[in-house]
Design goal:
The protein has helices at residues 4-21, 39-47, 60-65, 102-113, 125-131, and strands at 35-37, 53-56, 72-73, 94-97, 119-122. By secondary structure, the chain is an alpha/beta fold. Strands 1-5-4-2-3 form a five-stranded parallel sheet. The protein is globular and about 50 Å long.
Length: 139
Amino acid sequence: MNHLPNSWPMIALLAVVLAACTPPADGSKPGAGQEIISVEELAEQIQLERAPLIVDVRSEKEYAEAHIPGAVNIPYDQLGDRLSEIDAAKTDEIVVHCRSGYRAEIAEKVLREAGYSNVRDLDGHMNAWQSGGHPIERL
């Protein structure tokens, strides 16, 4: 009794599952074309007055409590209707962040679909910014 021919579908399925669970070889995050920027790099750019457009996609309340200096607040669920408020060319660098990443990922997709090609994700988001002791502003 040879069970090898019946094993091939299971082996093929296992190979597909393993491939889907393996992180990219280049170390990038999952997601189509997602680029990241470290909190240290962004803090340095702000200090040197060379910061990109920073879009805080958290709620207005969260933004008022603490935000990155110079960031504009457009909640992620309003971004599609408020694209006219993005004061940047389609090729300009835009850094998007929220508290921990979920809302920013949605906002980044909206921006890319609108034609913005240089969208970056703040590594660690507001949690990392604050835990790193970087400056914040309050309303």
